[in-house]
Amino acid sequence: MSNDQPTERFDAQSGDAPTKRFEAQSGDTPTERFEPAGGGTAGGGAAGGTTPPGSGKPPLPLSEPEGKSRTLLIILTIVGGLLLIALVIALTLMAIRGSGDSVPVATSPTPSVSESESPSPEPSESEAEEPAPEAEPTTAPPPPAASPSFATFSAPESAMCTSANPTSQLTFSWSSADAVRAWIGVRTTNAKAEPFEEVPTTATYTIDYQCSNDSEVYTVTLEDSAGTLTHKSVTVTKN
Question: For the whole model, what pTM was predicted?
Answer without folding.
Answer: 0.41
